[in-house]
Design a protein that fits this description.
The chain is mainly α and about 120 residues long. It contains 4 helices and 2 strands, in the order ααβαβα. It has a two-stranded parallel ribbon. Strand 1, helix 3 and strand 2 form a beta-alpha-beta unit. It comes from Mycoplasma capricolum subsp. capripneumoniae 87001.
Length: about 120
């Protein structure tokens, strides 16, 4: 379980609460489990995933307001930045676009376990 939440505190356009922490930890757990089947990412070490995938997914919101925006994550890979943005900004309308069946299956598993009410899977 990740504990170095201070890396998220130096930014003005997003905040982190316990619900977000829980979802990110669950996302990490599912990512690591499914990565063994689907080769979703080469970065798997806990701190690296939180810094290089989760935090990096949020850096552009320092320059752009995304509240209530429509966002398409084309070629989303393992859900970066799209899923991370949706966790932090639940009111955005997010479309994940991925042609790889293995990764679409990952999103189905992730959305069922994290209980994303907004998640549809497309091929």
């Amino acid at each position: 379980m990740f504990s170095n939440w201070n890396i998220f505190l130096n930014y003005k356009n997003f905040t982190i609460n316990q619900e977000i922490k829980n979802k990110l930890n669950l996302y990490y757990q599912i990512l690591i489990e499914e990565n063994q089947k689907y080769n979703l990412t080469r970065i798997t070490e806990l701190n690296e995933v939180f810094e290089k995938h989760f935090l990096d997914s949020l850096l552009f919101v320092e320059q752009f307001q995304i509240i209530d925006q429509k966002i398409a994550d084309i070629g989303t890979g393992a859900g970066f930045p799209g899923i991370v943005l949706k966790i932090f900004f639940p009111n955005i309308k997010l479309t994940l676009i991925k042609s790889n069946n293995k990764k679409v299956n990952f999103f189905k598993i992730l959305s069922s376990k994290v209980k994303f009410k907004w998640c549809w899977n497309f091929k």
